[in-house]
Amino acid sequence: LELRRQVKASHPVVQMEDLFAKLQELTEAGDPDYDSIISTADQILAKEAEDEDAIKCKFVALLNLKKFSQALDVVKDKPKACKALSFERAYALYRLNQHADALEALESSGTKSGEHVGMDLLRAQVLYRLGKYKESSEVYASVMDEETDPGELAVNRSAALCSAGDPTLGEQVLRGAATMLGDNADMSYNRACALIEKGDLTGALKALEDAESLYRKECEEQAVTEAELEDGLIVYNVQRGYVMQRMGQGEKAQGAYEEALKRKPTDQEVAAVASNNLFALRGKDTSLFDSAKKAKALNLDEQVEDKLTVQQRRVFALNRCLLNLYTNKTKECHQALSKLDKELEGSELPSLVRAALLAREKKMDECTALLQKHAEANPKTALLVKLTLAQLQLSQGDREGAIAALESVEGAYKQGGIVGSLVKLYEGVKDTAGAIKTLERAAESGGSSKEEKQNSRKFLLLSADMRSRSQDPVEAMKALEAVMLAGEKDPDTVARLVNLCAAIDLGKAEKYSEFLPAMDAASEIDVQELESFQRALPATRDADEMDVEATKAKMVALQEKRRQRRLMRRKKEKASVTLEDGRSVVVEAFHLPKKYAELVEMGSWGKPDPERWLPWHQRSYNRKLLKKRKGAGTASGGSQGGALAGTNVSNLDRSEKFQKELAAQEGSAQAAAASSPAASHGSGKKGRKGRK
Questions:
Q1: Using 50, 70 and 90 to split pLDDT, how confident is the model at 4?
Q2: Is the separation of the CB atoms in 112 and 129 below 8 Å?
Q3: Is 225 helix (H, G, I), strand (E, B) or coil?
Q4: How many angstroms separate the CA atoms of 29 and 15, rounded?
Q5: Percent of the chain clearing pLDDT 90 (strictly above)
């Protein structure tokens, strides 16, 4: 560092010369004593407050001591010094995570790209921290310096490209660098990250294995201890777990995360990623309290959290809120929300988390008001908020409010799910006109792509169906005509349109019938025979569908059989009957029910039934009872084989007694009533057994 030797005449020249000489000696030393440099610079500044050399020496010394805030205080309110130390000041701001101010300091320096390699590298890093990944990759690509490690440049550029959404180019950059310089652990690891972004998970696992092998080899060359080696391998294990999680191997991924956290990595960033992914894998229904315990790793230091990408910081902030929400830690959730507001400024996610908190506290009115306020303030971006609001209002029975919320969604009529929900809600409130209007607006909002045209056609057809059901054939016809005008010539659609026009406008029916497909060999078809055959076909259950002639013959035989049955039912016997006055008349016979025909045969038809007081199953002319009584006089029912020894078989014969009882029953109604106990006794236990 060359120092100016000109000083003002008001100070002793010898003393100032000695101070500058001492400062020069301290700055040129092999191992500079930064505290002595600061002390000497203060002595100079005490006599000459605007001396640029002293200010610069003190500023750089404070930077080396990592006292960035004090270094910035040195050049505070000194615009000339700030411009001279624009690079150093930008670096101090970068280390204090004041990235926007750091970028402003770099831009205000007036240095163009390529003039100062250090500024270019710092600018690329600041842009990366600000989430401007594309600009960062462009700056890295423009750096051309022999002193800068090209492998490190390739790794940084690849990381920026992957974060910018161009992993293919990022992988190509790494492959080119590995071909020229040889592969190393960092290149292989970043190549695995690029493959993950591309979706090549199998290739990513292979790249991670290569990176781990290269890392072990590098550690052996550098004589790294076993503990340091195992600690450095944790990052590969965590990334491998993430790949397995993406591949659907949840158990293996969970084991990798748990093993990484059990080893307690010194890198807080690795521990935070493992804890976050473990919570995301388990969800809110599995080991929630264990996830909350391990989530302490998400509370990163500001310096460590600054190394994360913008997407990582946002995910961590959101998962902190969700974890506190699921574990009912309301106070901690509100504290985490302040961080989420900072990371997701203008997003709807913080409002959704606050609404969930209010819903858990049963403050539904406040929850609804919060969602409505956010939806009104952000009409074009509050999709999730409006859907949540509609679901909340629907759960409270407010269908009209749910309809209003869904209709307020930007581009609602271009999304089939929202259109279907609106139609269902309109039908629920008995507003068919609103449902039809929704379908028509959805059809009109379709674009020019093939898929959008197909969706518009479907909406028009649904509208026509709904109008037909609502007894509005004219509008249904118009809707189908719109489909035809759009170029749709589907036979089903044309047939429906012709059917509607036939009842309204025969001219249009004839016009559109021309679009129906022609019938081949129509002159050979007997329409009447076809119609009669179609009517007869459903009457059989075992028709041979493959043999039409056999089926037709069966149908003809079945029809003839049915005709004969009808004739037999209509045919009645006639007989000549002489009346009491001597006249002879011809009458038609009729069929009596079976039980009444038996009464006629017994000669008791037209007379009061003497057994009318008895239940039907106990009457003497009951065939089931007679059958039982016929068997009562035999030996059936006993043990098989011959009669027991010493038993008088004649005592077992009750046929004579049975005939007497039967004669007594046919005497008169009074005698039948008197003999009813004997009939009950005759039926015995067998009758009761039969009723069980």
A1: very low
A2: no
A3: coil
A4: 21
A5: 11
What single string gives the DSSP state of each residue in 321-359?
Answer: HHHHHHTT-HHHHHHHHHHHHHHTTT-SHHHHHHHHHHH
> Angle at the Cα of 129 (from 125 to 130), degrees rounded to 5?
115
Q: How far is CA 567 from the centre of its chain?
A: 66
| Cβ–Cβ under 8 Å, residues 413 and 421 | no
Torsion angles phi and psi, residue 278, rounded to 5: -65, -40
pLDDT attached to residue 189: 92
Q: Render pLDDT for 331-377 as a digit per residue (tens, 0 to 9).
A: 888 888 888 888 888 788 888 999 998 888 888 889 989 888 888 88
Let me know: does 317 contact 343? Beta carbons within 8 Å: yes
In this model, does residue 513 exceed pLDDT 50? yes
* Matching residue, tokens 């079945």: 558
Reported pTM:
0.60
Reading the block at residue 299, the tokens are: 């509370």
**DSSP result, 563-627:** HHHHHHHH---EEEEE-TTS-EEEEE--PPPHHHHHHHHHT-TTS--TTTTS-GGGSTT-HHHHH
SS3 string, 128-191, reads: HHCCCHHHHHHHHHHCCCCCCCHHHHHHHHHHHHHHCCCHHHHHHHHHHHHHHHCCCHHHHHHH
pLDDT recorded at residue 570: 60
* β partners of residue 587: 575
Q: How many CB atoms lie within 10 A of CB 239?
A: 25
Q: What is the DSSP code (8-state) at residue 518? A: P
Q: What is the pLDDT of residues 155-199, one digit of tens each?
A: 999 999 998 889 999 999 988 888 888 888 999 999 999 999 999
What is residue 190's predicted lDDT score, i.e. its pLDDT?
92
Please give the backbone phi and psi of residue 588, each rounded to the nearest 5 degrees, phi first.
-90, 135
